[in-house]
Amino acid sequence: TQITRRTTTNNMSVRVRDEDSGENNSSPESKRPRRLRQDDENVTAYDHPDVLCFAARNRRGRFYIPCKNNSFGGVHVDNVLFDSGCSSLLLPFPLESGFPASFMEPARYKWTVSSSRGTGAAHSPVLKISMHIGGGFACTLADKQQPMHLMMLRFHLGTQASNLLLSTPDLRRMLDTNCVGKLNDFLRQLGNRSAPERTYALLGQSYLSRVMYCQINDVALALSEDFDGTENIIHILGRYIQKIVPLVEAFEGFHDLEDNDGDEDEEEYRLSWDLAGSPDDDIEDLDDR
After folding, report:
1. What would the pLDDT profile of 96-125 be if each residue is shown by its tens digit?
2. How many Å apart are CA 259 and CA 154, to the nearest integer?
3. In whole angstroms, what is the distance from residue 147 CA to residue 31 CA?
4. What does the pLDDT look like over 143-155, one tens digit per residue?
5. Long-range contacts of 14-21 (CB under 8 A, 24+ apart)
6. In 3-state terms, what secondary structure has residue 240?
7. Is the dihedral of CA 110, 114, 116, 117 positive or negative?
């Protein structure tokens, strides 16, 4: 039976497994995310002006933002995955919260339906929303307003979202005849099957091509193009490693977040802040992904 205790190495909190204790660490209470302590709050408050966003690798090997304060044009998204292989941006359809009222103004916004070419969404349509007039959509990541705007929002459409677009008058009137035909064709091809909805955002080249991307071990930073390199980037990364560890521990279900479009295996990643752990634990070393 294993429990987890905390120790400190090089001013960074890490998790250490204790094989000798008789206490059971598999109880529901032990799996709950812990609340931030006062010292954690001081560490997590660190914010470099040229670091626009950050992400941490989870035990599934995916880089997610360990913060739920993210929005795209006013559409809130809890879980955001850094994906440099995504050619654009792909968002979950806001089934519960809906779109901002301004999106339903045909004079300002254009709605189109097209096919996605992603691996997992190869046969699912995508709703694209762009502006006829305006400078693009505001974006907030990890509770930080981004200096650039997004020129288009792309929403994955599963069965439920497609039916909602067709059955809701305010939404359907934003679609032309061609778009309605594509949705009907999609649902007809599915028949009795159901296409799942996306639950997280893929943050791809629509954003990442406009920042300087830096990664070391299990931390990735998106830096402003104005970053001139006069500050030691290793020091900045070190501060963000300290910032991210308690955020990850306080984020419920962070290590269960996966990438439905990528190849997955059952092995879990050893993270850099696990290195002080027992060599006999059951977390595999990093693979070559």
Report:
1. 999 999 999 999 999 999 976 554 444 789
2. 17
3. 37
4. 999 999 999 999 9
5. 14/245, 14/273, 14/274, 14/275, 14/276, 14/277, 15/273, 15/274, 15/277, 16/276, 16/277, 16/278, 17/277, 17/278, 17/281, 19/278, 19/280
6. helix
7. negative
